[in-house]
Amino acid sequence: MTQYLVAVVGEPDYDTLSPEEMEQIMADVGAVVADAQEAGIFVFGGGLHGSEATTVVDARSGTPVVTDGPYAETKEAMGGFSIIDVADLDEALMWAGRFSAACRCPQEVRPFQDDPDADVPTQSEEN
Amino acid sequence: MDQAYDDAALARIFRDEYGRVVASLARRFGDLDIAEEAAGEALVVAVEKWAADGIPPNPGGWLTTTAGNKALDRLRRESLRDAKHQAALMITDDTPPEPTGPVEDDRLRLVFTCCHPALPPEARVALTLRLLGGLTVPEIARAFFVAEPAMGQRITRAKAKIKAAHIPFKVPAVADLPARLDAVLAVVYLVFNEGYLAGEGDSPTRVDLSDEAIRLARILRQLLPREPEVAGLLALLLLTDARRASRFAGGELVPLSEQDRAGWDRSLIEEGHALVRECLATNRPGRYQILAAINAVHTDAARAADTDWLQVLALYDQLQRIDPGPVVALNRAVAVAEVDGPDVALAIVDRLPLTTYHAWHATRAELLRRVGRSAEAREEYDAAVAATGNAAEQAYLTRRRRQLV
Amino acid sequence: MTQYLMSVHGTEADHDMTTGGGYGSPEAMREAMAETDRYNKRLQAEGYWVFAGGLKGPSTATVVDGQGAQPVVTDGPYLESKEHIGGFWIIEAPDLDTALALAADASKACRGKVEVRPFEG
Fold this sequence. Notes:
Chain C: It holds the Pfam family YCII. Chain C: InterPro entries: Dimeric_a/b-barrel, YCII. Chain C: Belongs to the YciI family. Chain C: Residues 27-118 form the YCII-related domain. Chain B: One of its GO terms (biological process) is DNA-templated transcription initiation. The complex is a heterotrimer. In chain A, 28% of the residues lie in helices and 26% in strands. Chain A is α+β, with helices and mostly antiparallel strands. Chain A has one domain: Alpha-Beta Plaits (2-Layer Sandwich). In chain A, strands 2-5-1-6 form a 4-stranded antiparallel β-sheet, covered by helices on one side. Chain A has a two-stranded antiparallel sheet with strand order 3-4. In chain A, helix 1 runs antiparallel to helix 2 (89-103). The two termini of chain A are 26 Å apart. The model of chain A is unreliable at 116-127 (pLDDT under 50). Among the domains of chain B are: 7-93; 107-224, no CATH class. Chain B contains 19 helices and 2 strands. In chain B, strands 1-2 form a two-stranded antiparallel sheet. In chain B, helix 13 (287-300) packs antiparallel against helix 14, helix 17 packs antiparallel against helix 18 and helix 18 packs antiparallel against helix 19. Chain C is built from 2 helices and 6 strands; from the N terminus they run βαββββαβ. The longest helix of chain C has 20 residues, at 26-45. Chain C is flat, with a radius of gyration of 16 Å. The interface between A and C is large, with 56 and 57 residues.
């Protein structure tokens, strides 16, 4: 099994939607989450606050430096995401397609590193 | 049957068997790099051994077995260095016989992996030619006029994504098959057109992409005998390719209506017509089947004047319902001109948003000529010449322009 | 309690394990990974931990648009920016100050800037 990040991209424009339409989206996303939980592949899901609620911490020098706002070079913030644990990319794309339809926006699918406990790379890249 | 050993026979066998060997190993070991490397090593052994002993009765089986042993050797070597590989080896060493599914050929899994929609389209084409078609990276690079390192990188990156993102090595589920098959057929059609439209003037070292596409389509046809769109695509390629020799004369493109029909390849046409008849009997029409049927009507006419344009128009009407895009509308307009007259066709063409497309200008020029609007036709021929990069087409358009009264 | 995303950003090259990625050398990378590992255990021990994971490089991304009749799948990433999210933690903390303090330790451990954003609801 591989974990995949299924992230909302492209900042969907929900401001123009009516409360009813918004409710419908929430219900549709909720239904996909319920199905994913039922299938036993759902790890985490959540919507994020926008850049106005974002803070950056840099403590590489030893002393934490806290600055307001999103990380400078991130042009477009993630609106939210799900983490799923599935057999392969085709299965991940199937769920991403369902999330995309429910939230009315494209989704980006990226695999997590295979073994979070791996201390050194195990692939035979040197060949 | 033992075959005589010579370089040409060897090259043909390698190309024919490469996809089978790589596909089989990719399924067993779940890794394209291991599969390709082992296939390459097996070819090297074959060159030496076959030169001495002659070509074995089943060269494909020989190559697959040899390559499988090479891959196992490599995994064993690595497992000595890395305990983690030991576990992997225990799994891969115990390979069950090929799982029986709806289709049993590993090459089918491989082609769906190569043409996966998560890969960039240009990489799908390159990977299919490399892994399934057995073409070398330099051959693919030359065929697409891309620098060799760039083509190599394109293929390497695609393979890295297959591995990292876990693109599966399997035939898609029945529900996904039509859409996924469409992506595969699009790759084959693109390979064909790349060879067909480029026409003449290729360097002698250039792999003939049209032939390669037909070979891939034949493999798909063999793997998916019940998919009418596969039969349709093969028929379309055969019926188009049958006219290849008559398409050019004296460095000039010859349009269908003026082609020497005696120069058409009758055996390809007969094979294509049989496939089209099979599609009609199956009665699950699709884009490639309809395009093949249109080509069947054209290749059925002994003279251009005998063409059943009503039938062609009916088929374009059907195609337009599947694909309402402007390019289909443009091609349909050519049939409209024959059935309802050039003025009706011109009214359709004028509305199409294709002003940067050379065929739009060329079609419009012909229609303007036929309705007697010579000055405008002249301008359109100029625009068509400017919009195409193909010298043979330019020569033809320039001649047509000169013929205007 | 509020859930916070603590994300680290980087370039495709930062994911290159063979060169040590953004850490400068394979040794420095191993050190940072070991420290991050210790930090993760602390998050779990102190009850802040929800999830943590490192992502594979942006070139492994695929975009899915499921808004039409048929989902459209394309090679990713969605944005052609130089820097992408490279990995993140999800923590649960009583307030932003706690989250920022945890983010500072995360920044030290993984040797990167850490962006902190609250989840909704």
